[in-house]
Specification:
The structure is a homodimer.
Chain A lengths: L2 E6 L7 H16 L3 E6 L5 H12 L5 H25 L4 E4 L6 E3 L8 E4 L2 H8 L3 E5 L2 E3 L5 E3 L4 H12 L4 E6 L20 E3 H12 L4 H10 L3 E5 L7 E4 L12 E17 L4 H11 L7 E5 L4 E9 L3 H10 L1 H4 L3 E14 L9 H11 L4 E6 L3 E7 L3 H11 L10
Parallel strand pairs in A: 1-2, 1-9, 2-6, 3-6, 9-11, 10-12
Antiparallel strand pairs in A: 4-5, 7-8, 11-12, 13-15, 13-16, 14-15, 16-18, 17-18
Helix pairs in contact in A: 1-3, 2-3, 5-7, 6-7
Keywords (chains A, B): Amino-acid biosynthesis, ATP-binding, Diaminopimelate biosynthesis, Kinase, Lysine biosynthesis, Nucleotide-binding, Repeat, Transferase
Family (chains A, B): Belongs to the aspartokinase family.
Subunit structure (chains A, B): Tetramer consisting of 2 isoforms Alpha (catalytic and regulation) and of a homodimer of 2 isoforms Beta (regulation).
Chain lengths: 409, 409
């Protein structure tokens, strides 16, 4: 008898009918003789509705009270799902984050899990019950309710898999798996049978949106095998694990993309050891999320730094830089919006020189100008004009033969 | 500096605008220099909506999961009200039942409060914060979420008043006080300046609906002075305390009524010492709420027992009686629905013989047939046909001169 952790997202639980469908998926796993621990998100748009209520009573953000408010969303789902399972003849017990012993650091809105006291869950599993746990939430040692940030239910599922030494962690979602690129925009997109943690991390960070990056990191660190699969379709999904056999010796596993990117360039910084750390520490302190960073030296004394941000943080970024001009000692700033990021990801790149060159050639042949480049061992990102994003993705998807992967299902 | 407990019901908190209004009422109390502990119910129809969701996923009742589900309602309100108070410039901290240390017996759906650990609330009050507590809910020693039953937020408020030795407990609601009868149905209904715990108890049990009976009992036992008042209007409400001076030597303080009553008669029970206790213990064990009980002996060996229940518990009542036929040894059962209860309440009855006779005469003169009668020292209840309920109430209100009380406001 194996212990399986199953996570269902909000879209899979948006109404009573879908909750009953999820109960059936759980029943099927239980019928195989497995122990089941189920992690759920808030129903459909509940979280957004609660945030909107909060905005109606206050224009300030009170993070403690926001956690108090939002954590009710998953609590509603666990109770309803537990009832739906009883209806199907199974014994189930639901637990909020604090009841499940999910201890987090004392931070509101974006807490990290420190520890899970699994006694209560074990006790119910030993009685043969299905255990339903509210995702996204935990409690501090002092009894304060915390949340793990958007997508945190994935993290709850992986953390529970680790703490309970589960055989498997199934992430049920509204897509059937991880694709070579976004199938909503590229019709040749293919579902991958498997992908490594690192590749998934690069894809997640780049906006694939299927799995929360922190959850993938957690899974990698604790070697938890994940499967991303559909809560509606019965087909196999995509396995995420450490070592993935290359399919047809593919060098590239996927093409990711993200629009609404802005480039900011800071000119004339003093070329000293602390320049880079000062500028990005200042931005981080103001919660500005910077993605690609490029430095180019223009002389021995001064340097220019470019970085990319999301369009909607431009105003604040410029404010912060302006306020700290005396500290940072730069000359002037330029910014350019209307950009997009297109990246190729694959562990195979490490041992294949020339992948970057091939990518640049494909883009150039398609008349696409590259504005910024950033590379890691398993990823190459380019920033291009937003209008050229989808043509770039399609060209790369085809050039790296991603449309032709034989898929098992 | 006094400590005031304020309780606001769901109607007073049904939307963001009303929540902001409640925040202003609390601000006003705080401005006087008082410490405030606020107890709230779920917003508007939230509880009903949650119950309806539960019915959509299951036709069984799982009381543990129902408590898990319903307790989210108050948790949403405490967070929003706390945010609204921050918006008004006050520091506030919200607490769920378990965070507020409200320990209940291990019963779901209708738990009694055993104890309140007030340390956390005291700590926040000492910091000058307004404390907002989720009404209606508590936690067992084992960490299971419980609820106190409908209207339980009143109980939370009174229990907190006792535990914190509050100077006063204000129950804010959608009516301006306690009336001689329901003003929605009887236009001559008058607001009472004051009423005793016992009178209020009789009125509450009889469906006046302003205050939960358990809360009044709790207040009586711990001598907590309550004031029932409007959350919108600024006028004085009705004080509820031990001794109330009679206004104009009125014998009757109010006329209460309740529809959807069913009479059940159990025929041919063995006339032995244990018959009554066995039958009502069996019903109580199955959580069936019995109101009026009447026994009439038909012979030395056997007896008949009639009792009244709410219409919607008839099916379960008959099931329970049927299942336990061997234990109870009765002959057969009859039931009659479509009834209503009409009662007069007043401490003055104790020293005024003939009040019952007067009541029966008034009803008889108005052509109203009495189906059951039950009396206590301060109350006479009659069961009549449901169609005759309001005519009976109007006739009694007039006959006992309740329309003419001079009211201070």
């Amino acid at each position: 008898m194996a212990l399986i952790v199953q996570k269902f997202g909000g879209t899979s639980l948006s109404d009573p009918e879908r909750i009953l469908n999820v109960a059936e998926r759980i029943s099927a796993e239980k019928m195989k003789g497995n122990d089941c621990v189920v992690v759920v998100s808030a129903m459909g748009k509940t979280t957004d509705q609660l945030i909107s209520l909060a905005k109606d009573v206050s224009n300030q953000v009170n993070k403690r009270e926001m956690d108090m408010l939002l954590s009710t969303g998953e609590q509603v789902t666990i109770a309803l799902l537990s009832m739906a399972l009883s209806q199907n003849g199974w014994e189930a017990a639901s637990f909020t984050g604090w009841q499940a012993g999910i201890i987090t650091e004392p931070v509101h809105g974006n807490a990290r899990i420190l520890n899970i006291h699994t006694e209560k869950i074990r006790e119910q599993l030993n009685k043969g019950k299905i255990v339903i746990v509210a995702g996204f939430q935990g409690v501090t040692e002092d009894g304060e309710i915390t949340t793990l940030g958007r997508g945190g239910s994935d993290t709850t599922a992986v953390a529970l898999s680790t703490a309970l030494k589960a055989s498997k962690c199934d992430i049920y979602t509204d897509v059937t798996g991880v694709y070579t690129t976004d199938p909503r925009h590229v019709k040749e997109a293919q579902k991958l049978a498997a992908i490594s943690y690192d590749e998934m991390l690069e894809l997640a960070h780049l906006g694939a949106g299927v799995l929360h990056p922190r959850a993938v990191e957690f899974a990698k660190n604790h070697n938890v095998t994940l499967e991303v699969r559909s809560s509606i379709e019965k087909e196999r999904g995509t396995i995420i694990k450490e070592e993935v056999t290359m399919e047809q010796n593919l060098v590239v596993r996927g093409v990711a993309f993200e629009d609404e990117i802005t480039r900011v360039t800071v000119f004339g910084l003093p070329n000293c050891l602390t320049s880079l750390s000062t500028i990005f520490s200042t931005l981080a302190k103001n919660n500005i999320d910077v993605d690609i960073i490029i430095q180019s030296m223009t002389s021995k004394e001064i340097t220019d730094i470019s970085f990319s941000i999301k369009n909607d943080t431009l105003k604040e970024t410029l404010n912060v830089l302006e306020k700290n001009k005396d500290l940072l000692k730069y000359d002037h700033i330029e910014s350019e919006t209307g950009l997009a990021k297109v990246s190729i990801v694959g562990s195979g790149m490490v041992s294949n020189p020339g992948v970057a060159a091939e990518m640049f050639t494909v883009l150039s042949n398609n008349g696409i100008e590259i504005r910024m480049v950033s590379t890691s061992e398993i990823k190459i990102s380019t920033v291009v004009n937003q209008q050229q994003m989808l043509p770039a993705v399609n060209a790369l998807h085809k050039a790296f033969k991603l449309s032709a992967i034989p898929i098992r299902s």
